[in-house]
């Protein structure tokens, strides 16, 4: 799953279109959700298959997208600490620590 922030903006919108055309699973984040039309699981799967993804893989991506919001993928992995030698941080803490990079 690829998360695109600013998904309805001048850069984000074409990026989302390109990713979807290539069969990527995309989570669109926008400050104006009224600009985003939901995509059904069937349409999402069909778009991934049309972009060349194998049907089994597309079905798995749709299933993952359906269970992630329910918290089934919320386990804690050690990858970040294994690679960086420090614990992972939540997005809120990262943004707070790097606020100046996000605010002009």
Could you describe the 3D structure shown?
This protein has one domain (2-74). It contains six helices and two strands; from the N terminus they run βαβααααα. A two-stranded parallel ribbon has the order 1-2. The protein has 104 residues and is mainly alpha-helical. Helix 2 (41-50) runs antiparallel to helix 3 (55-67). The chain is globular, with a radius of gyration of 16 Å. The model has no long low-confidence stretch (mean pLDDT 87). Helix content is 48%, strand content 8%. The two termini are 29 Å apart. The longest helix has 13 residues, at 55-67.
The major sheet is characterized as:
2 strands, parallel
What percentage of the residues does DSSP assign to strands (E)? 5-15%
- Provide the domain count: 1
Using the CA coordinates, give the radius of gyration: 16 Å
Overall mean pLDDT: 87
Number of helices: 6
From N to C, what is the helix and strand string? EHEHHHHH
Tell me the overall shape. Answer: globular
Poorly predicted regions are none
Number of strands: 2
Going across the major beta sheet, what is the strand order?
1-2
| Portion in helices | 40-55%
What is the CA-CA span between the terminal residues? 29 Å
Indicate the structural class.
Answer: mainly alpha
